[in-house]
Amino acid sequence: MATLKPKFFSKHLLGAIFFASSVGPLVAQSSGEPANLAVLFTQAEEAFAAKNYLDAAAKLEAIIKGATPNSPMEMLHFNAGLAYLLGEQYEKAEAAFTEAVKVNPKGQYSSRAYLGIGRAIIAENKPEKLERAIEALRIAAADPQFRSEAGLTLGQVYIKAGRQEEALQVFSSLMGSDVRTPQQTNAAVEVVGLLAETNQMDQLVAYLDRLINQSGVRNAISWYANQIIVRGDQLVEAENYDAALAVYRSIPPRRQILDTQNLALADQRKELAALKVRATAEEKGPIEKRSATTERIGELESAIALTEKAMAAIQAKEDLDAALLMRRGRCLYYLNRYEEALVCFQTLRTDHPNASDVQTASYSEIFVYNQLKNTEEMQRLATEFLKNHPNAKNVEQIATLAGDGLARAQKWPEVQKFYQDLETKFPQSKNLDRYSFFQGVALFQQRKFPEAISHLQKLVQKFPTSPLVEDSLYRIAMANFLSNEYKKTLESSADYLKKFPDGRYAGDVRYRLAFINFSDPDPAAADKVIKDLTSFLASNPNDPAAGSMYSLLGDTYSQKKTSKDSKEMASFQNKALEAYVKAVWSRSTEDVVRYALESATSILQAKKDWKALGDLHADVLQRMPNTDIGLISATWVAKMKVREGKGAEAADLLAESLKSTLGDPSNESVEFLIDELVKTLVPPRNKIAEANVDALFTQLDEIMKKAAAGQSNPTTFARTTYARARLAQMLRLTDRSDLYLKGIAMNSEDPSALSPALLAVSGEILLKESQQDQKDNKPDEAKTKLEKAQAMFQRLSDRYKESMFADAGPVGLGRVAMVNKDYETAFRIFDDAITNNAAMSRFNEATLGKLEALTGLGKYEEAEKLALEIVGDRQFRGETAGKAYLVLAQVYRKKAANLAGGDQQEALKKAHAYYQRVYTAYRAFPEVCAEGYWGAYEVATELGETQIATETLEVLKTNSKLQQTARGKQAQAL
Amino acid sequence: MKIPFISRGSAGFLTALVMSIFSIAFAQEAQNRIIFEGNRSLPLDQVTVNGDNFVVKSDTDGFKKGQTFPIALASYVSGEKPAVVNESIGLLMLGKPIDGLLLLEPMLELHKVTAKIPGNYWLEAARAALVANAFNGSSSKVEALAAEIAEATPAPGEDPAAALGKALLMPSSSKLEDRLAALESLVNDTNPPVVSAYASFFHGNLLKRVKRDKEALHSFLKVSCLYPTGGRVLNGAAELQASEILNSMNRREEAVALLQSAVREAKNTAAGAEADKRLKSLQ
Questions:
Q1: Are A1 and A229 a contacting pair, CB within 8 Å?
Q2: Is the CB of residue A127 less than 8 Å away from at least one CB of chain B?
Q3: What are the chain B neighbours of A167 within 8 Å (beta carbons)?
Q4: Closest among A913, A860, A851 to A880, alpha carbons compared
Q5: Residue B233 has pLDDT above 90, yes or no
């Protein structure tokens, strides 16, 4: 922003007002002063006004020399000090100020004189005098009028002197003070700068918020706004975007600045007029009887003049609001807060079309969409930009960005058209080869191979020195290969290899050629493949295509069945194995590595070489611990080592691989590895009963201790407990397993320590426990556990959206809401979950939850409709359908409650029929079945069918499968 | 910017130094007072207003009971903004207007005398109370507050807060599009930023309720991006809402950044506490 220039509004200018205003009393002369002294007074004043400070000082010294007993010595010494200070004669300034306080230690000028002493000494830069400066500034800061200015300087001096405690006290008092005067406003701006520079963000935001209401700031709001913007710009330059954003956000809109300033100026002018009247009345009196009116007039006039200048600058800057939007947007962009940046740039573009920043904003908006990979919006805006700003210097950059975005999004027909248009629009561009190349790529990607070949061949001819020639030749070869044009593939591949024998794609081209030979049934072709690939790989072991080439080599050896010599065949098998293993360790894509590993595994299985198989996968596990391949290898390691009778070794290997991830709750492979580890310790099924359980747990604990060594924290603790739970489960000690899992749930104070799996399990346990506490009449415990459960599910929902356990989050939250009888929230959660993710793993549960929420909301018609859909849909077969029937029965009972006579009877009979269906068809689910019996008993009682009710209750009481259910126990208690 | 006397190394000390400043800083000048020209002052509970004059209630600080002088002589209101203002706005933005009003009403009563003094705290509180009452459907209170605000502000005619109140008072049975339009019309550069900010926030709320999340996000973000001087707590509350939507769009990092800002902006309020809770859950 060019318009508001800092030099007009020097950060020190307001401070200078303080000094300049002190000239006031010089104007009037004492009636008792000799005329020559009076002349000197006037001359001193003129010298001050003309900024001839040393001249002013000389005049004042002359007055002091010839002073009479009536002369205002304090004032004279003070002004001499001031003149020397402004004239950069610091030692003389210090001496003059010192004289002033000697004359009158508690006089009208004493605080300012002490402030002057402090400033003069600091400017002298003599460390031995620092204490004196501190002392002087402390005295000045004790005066509320100068607290801010003196305090700021004092604080800075304390810091330099290493006196942190004292500095802290000073700054504390600064930020708590009212800001009224220009000096205090100036100091406040400095404090803002200090807070911003030291990244005290909380304090900065609070302080900025406080300042805007302060009278000093309101009076000089135009100046203040300018200063703050300059501070913000400096922070941006220093890349402190957080603080810069806070600063920019604190500036009111232009209209508000001007309105506030106008009001403040009106008040100040009124005050000035009143002061002038008073000053006129005091004019004839002696100097020593004067009030500070004239001084105040000077200060006010200077302040008004400065403010009017600042306000004029704001008035002239009609697009100030747009400029602020641009600044905020820029900060937000650099803070990666893209959506907010978009709001700023978009608003600037649409609401301030004539602002000077509109082009930059439009350009920035496109960049943001590029970051967000929103190619549609990027395209639209790029097209608009090219139309609206055809002569912008970055127009081609925008065009290229848009094209790249389309290519990334793989919208190939659009890519082709886009670059065609660019070629037409910019025929002189230096990037014509690039535009042409991408059209070729687009054709290739659309599998329009003949057109792609033709296009790229033209490119190579037209731009023989372009850096894109290699890519073009490669794609020509690939296009022929993918078109199964054998002869043309050979020609174009040879063409590429001739020009780029060591090119980026040399390996891949050779691989394709080898592949062609591989497909040739002639045994000589296989030998050629082996020869060519072996030779190439010997000198290019790290080629990007090495993995594919090694795999092809392995396949070629595997297919060689030409020899009847078993030794030779074994040799081929070994060479195939060797090649596959090399492919595994090459830097290839996952699918290549996986293929190679599977092939190597097959060979080792065929050879029954369990040790080698175990070792291979142990290596893979060690080198690729956090990958899917690593997890598969973990399973193999466990199996093979156990087969060798080396279960403990397997456990150690797995524990070793756990070390780096055990403490990371977001790593979901850990629980899987723990499962595999535990399996290595568990004896075969037929020997579990004889197992030494304690010894196994001790062994597990030792292994987990090693895995967790040096990283004991809630996450590793929880996972160690999980390992114990799994061991207990595998040893069929279900109660013990449940106890361990409950321990995790109850003892985990911070959900962020738990992995998604453990969050899901813990949430479930806590929810269940809470419901039990409720039944046991322990409401406080119930509430605590419910809140904990909610926190678990919330964490799962917020942080682990991509996890396989993610669905437990919203379902759990919905159930918590149901327990809280917050049916509105429950419905919203379940409905959102189903709508946003129809493929969710807990779809049935969520649907049932939605049904229960509808019932809770009293929306019986909708509940009935949904329940009927559920029971009619095969995917809900089983317990869910049974529960849906229970809800249907409830719905009819609720309906019955609002009916009378025959209608009521009918409704109750329907309810009874549904309950009967439940206890007849859902015996496999004891709790559901028991609920059916209980409901039927209640409804029969309501219908007056006493005998049926009694018989129903009797079945519930005596059925051995139902006796332990909640309703079964309730029945027995009757 | 080079701060005189501070080297880069010394600035490092400040990081530790300034940490606890705010625990001390705002202890001073806790009680608000009216400051007059010439630096004399009176506590708020010692004056009443009669027309355009203050009337002293009892002998205090050199003033005599019954003494009157023009309101125009008052320069400003000293001391901090009462904490209840931000606290109640925080509650209001979380959908708890009654709780907010309970906190706010005593402060409004006490500070009413400062309504016409530049830089007073009453105006912000009055607008918040207007919004809270509109939420409760108390149209008579909304009208009364709107009239008081209009009287206190220098611009002639109805204060835009009145229009905000009317828009918020529209019953839920009204057409959604009408309610949205009423709020949207208040989001502009002509209105005071606080009015635009409130309007944009509640516009976002309505859209969120009907699952028009993308539009809701835009409305929430307008609060802190376009009208940040509308109030810190409003900024924080809007950022909290926006973060939820962004997180549901799997833009977790931006959601976290918004929550971090919300915690800061709405510090010491219920909205800030909620933002902190969500932040911990997300990190």
A1: yes
A2: no
A3: 17
A4: A851
A5: yes
Q: What percent of chain A has pLDDT over 70?
A: 94
Torsion of CA B202, B203, B204, B205, to 10 degrees: 50
Dihedral in degrees, nearest 10, Cα atoms A384, A388, A394, A397: 20
Pairwise CA distance, residues A503 & A651, whole Å = 46
**Class assignment of domain A31-177?**
mainly alpha
Contact A314, A258 (CB under 8 A): yes
Task: Write the residue in A210, A249, A263 that is nearest to B228 by C-beta.
Answer: A249
Strands B74-78 and B47-50: unpaired
Spatial contact of A813 and A793, defined as CB atoms under 8 Å apart: yes
CA distance A251 to A719: 51
Give the pLDDT mean for B107-127. 94
Q: Point out the residue among A177, A206, A235 whose CB comes nearest to the CB of B22.
A: A206
CA distance B221 to chain A (A): 6
List, for residues A527-571, the tens digit of each pLDDT value: 889 999 999 999 988 888 999 999 999 999 998 866 678 888 888
- Report how far residue A313's alpha carbon sits from residue A59's, in angstroms, rounded to the nearest whole number: 38
Question: Phi and psi dihedrals of A542, rounded to 5?
Answer: -105, 15
Per-residue pLDDT tens for A296-316?
787 788 889 999 999 999 999
DSSP state letter for A29: -
* First and final C-alpha spacing in chain B: 34
From B185's Cα to the closest Cα of chain A, the distance in A is 15
What are the structure tokens assigned to A24, written together? 């006031």
Whether B218 and A343 lie within 8 Å, measured CB to CB: yes
CATH 1.25.40.10 residue spans of chain A? 31-177
Using CA atoms, how far apart are residues A670 and A625, in angstroms rounded to an integer? Answer: 10
Chain B residues closer than 8 Å to A174 by CB = 25
Instruction: Please provide the DSSP assignment of A334-389 as one string.
Output: HTT-HHHHHHHHHHHHHH-TTSTTHHHHHHHHHHHHHHTT-HHHHHHHHHHHHHH-
Assign residue B233 a region: left if phi > 0, alpha if psi is -120 to 50, beta otherwise?
Answer: alpha
A348, amino acid identity: L
Chain B residues close to A320, C-beta within 8 Å: none
- pLDDT per position as a tens digit, A384-412: 898 888 888 888 888 888 888 888 888 89
Token pair listed for A744: 């995790």
- Of A252, A335, A798, Cβ closest to residue B281: A798
Q: Give the closest of B7, B14, B24 to A198, CB-based.
A: B14
Residues of A in contact with B233 (CB under 8 A): none
CA distance B113 to A411: 66
* Start-end of H helices in A178-319: 182-197, 201-211, 215-219, 221-237, 241-249, 254-282, 293-316
ipTM computed for the complex = 0.90
Residue B78 pairs with which residues in a beta bridge? B33
Query: Which CATH number is correct for A858-974, 1.10.10, 1.25.40, 3.40.1710, 2.60.40?
Result: 1.25.40
Q: Which of B10, B80, B235 sits opposite A159 (nearest CB)?
A: B10
Q: What is the pTM of this model?
A: 0.76
Burial of A305 (0-12, 13-18, 19+ CB in 10 A): exposed
Contacts 24+ apart (CB under 8 A), A530-538: A530/A556, A530/A557, A536/A507, A536/A510
Residues A240-286 have pLDDT tens digits of 999 999 999 999 999 999 999 999 999 899 889 988 888 777 766 55
Does the beta-carbon distance from B29 to A214 stay under 8 Å?
no
Local structure of residue A646 (DSSP, 8 states): -
Residues of A in contact with B20 (CB under 8 A): 168
Measured between beta carbons, the chain B residues lying within 8 angstroms of A792 are none
